[in-house]
Write a structure and sequence with these properties.
This protein has one helix at 30-35; strands at residues 2-7, 22-26, 42-48, 51-52, 55-56. By secondary structure, it is mainly beta.
Length: 57
């Protein structure tokens, strides 16, 4: 799965953000994905299936 997060505290509203920053990573679980960005305030934006070249993962 590819996990995409907005870099923001969960208490912030999108309208409060001056810049919308996102980060993405491949992981099997959301917990594993969050571990790839230690210390960063993350809000889950999307979780999508990763596709392999020539087919579906």
């Amino acid at each position: 799965m590819v996990y995409t997060f907005i870099v923001a505290h969960s208490s912030q509203k999108l309208a409060q953000l001056k810049k919308l920053r996102t980060v993405s990573t491949f992981a099997h679980t959301e917990e594993q994905a969050r571990k790839n960005f230690p210390g960063m305030p993350l809000v889950l934006q999307a979780r999508t299936h990763a596709r392999r070249e020539g087919g579906v993962a």
